[in-house]
Write the structure tokens for this entry.
Amino acid sequence: MATRVLSNDHVESAYERWAPFYDAAFEWVMGYGRKAVAAEVNKFDGRVLDVGIGTGLELPMFKRDIDLVGVDLSESMLEIARKRVAEFGLTHVEALLVMDALNLQFPDDSFDTVVAPYVLTVVPNPHLLLDELSRVVKPGGAIILVNHIGAASGPVAWIEALFGMISHWLGWNPQFPWSIVGDWLAKRPDIELLERRPVAPIKLFTLIRMRRRNPGEAAGSPLSAANP
């Protein structure tokens, strides 16, 4: 059963449909992953980019002494995020911008930390997304993702394949093998995988924590105290 290839048009139209009830449908099931991402971000200081900010569910989870920029492809989702910023008085939010995650309109080395919750399975080209995240994060900075990683075999894989047939309507790809990330990492000696661990509920999602190495830093070098 072949999964349809998503396009930005598929994703944008899907999230226009999801926007009015996205929070009600997904706040609980994805909340654990968002909290895990925020906990990692809150270990650091500086400027943070949140790619795929959506309705901004994780915005109140971030500490207030960072400068945060959020981007998303859906204007309807961002409208809800802006209301959340006003409601909670989130003065640490620098900007919320409509932007394609595969073509981030920021200079190289713009952010101390970059996060992308639940985005890998949404974009048409995950490798290009990872390239963009690693381009805009500063050397020594963290890249933090949380995402569903598809099952290799068994009943869960079959269920994911069935949902994959309507991925263009859902707006995400339920079939997403770890090899997509692993193959990209194998070609990027400048990026170090620090952690890959399941998060609740029922280990449905995976937290992926990476770090862009400093210039001249050899693969396998000990991590600095500033960015454990």
In short: The radius of gyration is 17 Å. Residues 153-172, 222-228 have pLDDT under 50 and may be disordered. The CA atoms of residues 14 and 104 lie 21 Å apart. Strands lie at 47-51, 67-72, 93-98, 111-117, 137-147, 191-199, 205-212.
